[in-house]
Description:
This protein is mainly alpha-helical. The chain has helices spanning 2-20, 26-96, 101-129.
Amino acid sequence: MTRLTVVLAVAIGATSLVACNNAKSPATVAKDVSAAEQSAAENNAKAQEKAAQKVSTARNDLRAEQRQAMHVASSEEEKLARANAEGDRKVALAKCEGFSGEQQKACKDQANAAYDVAVAGAKQDRAITDPKQ
Length: 133
């Protein structure tokens, strides 16, 4: 009886192994290949869409950062131009102290006018270069 059981177990095992290597019908293979191709195409399309979205987001982030950097640079350049103009005005006004009367007044007016022109130029430069204005 044990011998019969062992022989049957070996026969069932051998039959199972042979069944695993049986070729599928051409129709089944074609169906499986078609399903695999469709699945691969769908996965590729999803991956391409996701990649395109990430690239687009990265480009938008980069543009925003560049815009912010241009804004900061423009603002700081205006501040620097104003500081330079203020310094120039102080020097000019100090020189005006060497004059008296109408000549001193004209000198101060000229220093203040030069300051106003420099500040207006700084504002204009910022308006041109600052993307947030």
